Every structure is written in C-alpha cells, then in structure tokens.
C-alpha cells in the first residue's frame, strides 16, 4: 500500500460523506420501466374523475364475488356468516 492510499490524520473521519449522499442516491435510484408509463396514465385517468362504477358499486361487486368464493369453499349457505361478522355493530 503506497503513501497515496494512507488516510490523512488531520482530516476528521467521515469528512465529505454527507455531501456525497445525494449523488449516490441519484445514481442508485431505479429507473422507471417503459411499461409503467401506460399503467400510470390509466391510473391517473381513473383517479382524475374518469367515468366508471362508483366505490359503492365496486364494493358490492367485490362482496358478491367473496360470497361466491366462500360458498364454493364451505359448500353451503354458511358462507354468508363471515360477511355478517364483518358488519360493524353499533
């Protein structure tokens, strides 16, 4: 090991580290894949008031789908019991 690789005893340890962090973070940041752009555009359109079913309708559709899946798993009408347990009581 040569003298040019020796640390300077007059310089405190870690000097300049904080100044190099932003450049290191920018260099290490992942680049956005090309396929994410159409997905992001679709999501922004959806969230910006695009036409479609309301949140209530989507929730009811999801609940109906869950009921069908639970009926298939349990094999009976008792599939509605977990959904009834999820209803908040006051």
Task: Explain how this protein is built.
Helix content is about 55%, strand content about 0%. It is mainly alpha-helical. The protein has a domain at about 55-90. The radius of gyration is 29 Å and the shape is elongated. The termini are far apart. The mean pLDDT is about 75.
Short description:
The protein is an all-alpha fold. 56% of the residues lie in helices and 0% in strands.
Please state the structural category.
mainly alpha
* Percent of residues in helices: 55-70%
| Basic shape | elongated
Count of β-strands: 0
Q: What gyration radius follows from the Cα positions, in whole Å?
A: 29 Å
End-to-end span in angstroms?
Answer: 75 Å
Q: Low-confidence stretches at least 5 residues in length (pLDDT < 50)?
A: none
Range of strand content: under 5%
């Amino acid at each position: 090991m040569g003298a040019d690789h020796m640390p300077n005893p007059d310089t405190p340890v870690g000097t300049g580290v904080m100044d190099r962090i932003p450049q290191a973070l920018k260099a290490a940041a992942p680049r956005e894949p090309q396929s994410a752009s159409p997905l992001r555009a679709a999501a922004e359109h959806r969230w910006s008031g695009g036409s479609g079913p309301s949140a209530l309708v989507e929730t009811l559709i999801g609940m109906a789908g869950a009921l069908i899946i639970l009926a298939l798993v349990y094999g009976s009408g008792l599939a509605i019991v977990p959904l009834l347990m999820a209803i908040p009581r006051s």
